[in-house]
Amino acid sequence: PADGKMNKIKWILTWPLIFVLFCTIPNCSKPRWESYFMVTFILSTLWIALFSYFMVWMVTVIGYTLGIPDVIMGITFLAAGTSVPDCMASLIVARQGLGDMAVSNTIGSNVFDILVGLGIPWGLQTMAIDCGSTVKINSKGLVYSVALLLGSV
């Protein structure tokens, strides 16, 4: 009985978000929308960007309120929050006997995050917003992390 109540509460809390996503992202698995796969990809990526912005903003506010530095909040909460879904997806496909897909998901999602998640905003900054400018990176470990990630690929 408790599970039923929790599922109802979860449904009530998530329904508005699911409804908005349903209305704005075409479902490519339906024959009517099969040819709109790129629209689905782009809209999904834009929604992820919006959710990420709000997630970082909320973590920054919470960290500031509790007196925790942004670096610590980013390493612990944001990194864990973005890695857990990838881990779950990798576990699911590994249990189905698709170990190569689990490894490619793990590495591929990080490569996508680095090359697209950082590349597009930096590219827009240097090509469209402030043409010819440079982007200053305020992280000592970023170059090492990117080199390690690309080396593992």
Automatic annotation (TrEMBL):
GO molecular function: calcium channel activity; calcium, potassium:sodium antiporter activity; symporter activity
Family affiliation: Belongs to the Ca(2+):cation antiporter (CaCA) (TC 2.A.19) family. SLC24A subfamily.
Residue spans crossing the bilayer: 12-29, 36-59, 71-94
Cited InterPro entries: K/Na/Ca-exchanger (IPR004481), Na_Ca_Ex (IPR004836), NaCa_Exmemb (IPR004837), NCX_ion-bd_dom_sf (IPR044880)
PANTHER family associated with the record: SODIUM/POTASSIUM/CALCIUM EXCHANGER, SODIUM_POTASSIUM_CALCIUM EXCHANGER 4
Keywords: Antiport, Calcium, Calcium transport, Ion transport, Membrane, Potassium, Potassium transport, Signal, Sodium, Sodium transport, Symport, Transmembrane, Transmembrane helix, Transport
Catalysed transformations (reactions): Ca(2+)(out) + K(+)(out) + 4 Na(+)(in) = Ca(2+)(in) + K(+)(in) + 4 Na(+)(out)
Entry's localization field: Membrane
Domain Sodium/calcium exchanger membrane region: 38-150
Any single biological process term in GO: sensory perception of smell
Matches recorded under Gene3D superfamilies: NCX, central ion-binding region
Membrane topology annotation: Multi-pass membrane protein
Entry annotated with the keyword Transmembrane: yes
Gene encoding the protein: Slc24a4_1
GO CC, one annotated term: plasma membrane
A Pfam family that the UniProt record links to this protein: Na_Ca_ex
Name assigned to this protein: NCKX4 protein
